[in-house]
């Protein structure tokens, strides 16, 4: 099942370390089939607040996403970002192509009955 790495980066910086991180991150993703779906850019806030930037990276599955994050190549460049940009990073499973919120609601209702 497809998985995603999501980052909510609350501060922006053009520090030399951040630029180095940006130059090198693509090479860390390639061996794991990772690709950017969203990388900064504008967001339209419809509810609540959203200070910062959004990054979404797609991976073939959660174990592969975790392997990328834990890889020595990514761990080597990660401090270039974390020393200069505050944010939250998570990994999340996607859903199957036939996912249905209505079926999920029915299942949850049965479980709570």
TrEMBL record:
It comes from the Bacteria. Residues 2-95 form the DUF1330 domain. InterPro entries: Dimeric_a/b-barrel, DUF1330. PANTHER family: BLR0684 PROTEIN (PTHR41521:SF4), PTHR41521. This is DUF1330 domain-containing protein. It comes from Micromonospora profundi.
